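Field reference: sequence -> structure
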Amino acid sequence: MKHLRNVSWLWLLLCLATLSCQHPPTKSMDLIEPEGPPPPITFSASCETGDHFYLMAVGNINMLSKTQQEASLLRDMSRPTAIERVSSGFFAFFSRMADFLKNADFVMGNLNSPLAENLTSDFYIDGDREICNYTELPPDQLYDGLVYGSELENTGYPEVNTHPALAYALRQAGFAAVQTANLNASDRGSNGIDLTIDAFREAGLSPVGTAKYGQAPEGVVVEVKGVRVGFVGATLNLGGEVRYGGGKVDLAGQVSKIYAKDSNEMYPVTTQIERLRIKNLADFVVAMINMGSANSKSPAGDVVNVAYALAEYGADLVLITRPGQVQKMEKYLAFDGREVLICYSLGNFTNLVDTTIPEQQLSSALAIIELTKTDSGIKISGVGYVPLTIGDASGFSGPLPTDWADPNYAKRSQSVVDIFGPLNRVYPDAPWPPKLPSACK
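Structure field:
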């Protein structure tokens, strides 16, 4: 079957083949939203018996210059090694989330930065590679503004790079997989992509959506409680493709894209999903897709179409990761009968905290996905969310549940509840595992 950008054609073909036309994809979001709070999202597998395990997903992990400068001040310089000293500064941002994250069997998020040790943004072309220049820094220097930090330079989009010790901090906080295919993936060139993959693997995490030079991006499979969870990641575009004056555009093809170059076909990402399914490499497939408007409160029609297409090709959970504010979740019924969860945006997990940042980009959500090992396979049996705030009155600038924040910051939860509805909300102090809405009467 041809992989078409407009899922309406895919839907039509499937509709004619199955004589079931109950889920046409939305071409635009100019729809009348129902009044009142959203109803609970439930899954039929909640009525089936079997062992449960839990995934958690967060939104964008942003590491711009001010955040890195603050992390530098938070380093514990008494630690015995340079990597531990730098990692301690980053971990300070996640410290108030770490205990809660460790309730999950698997945690994932999107990192908008390479982890390219000692590379600047200056580059040259070597064959089919963009190679960034090397400048050696002391191993425990977390920020300098040239190697590590973010540079706008009137380009419209910052080029970012972060010390590789961040990978150890994420692992310490409970993360297991991190999306690396996004707008910033090529900010330190081809050699920076290689170094980022090395940094994650050395820290014991799985990078999703990029490949080392000479290899093609493909899905990653991680075993969770005996279940093979497959991950694919892709981005709509790269910063170098949209910055004024151009930039690094991944000439070597190391970053997974949603669409093929100069084509309307989605096979770069759909073939990764099909490989996991056809070769029976995964029991459950997660697609992490970097696209959408950074400041929109609703998903655009092209984002909805892509999410529905990936669900039809075999994704069980679709996470859209670019938007900086929370957007809705929905359950999508695929034509093969699977109930697929789509999260259009969980917002920013970390971000700058100052008066220039819109309030809606300082609240976000953590999604909790319950999976059940049923007789007919691994299925989503429930979903919940925890509203988060970035920073509170104590001066802390990292993420934390709004329920644990100063009352003036706790009110940020209401904007998240208005989008997701009150009935799927999980309170972080409640007993674990959480009691999620059920489809059972």
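Note: The first strand starts at residue 52 and ends at 61.
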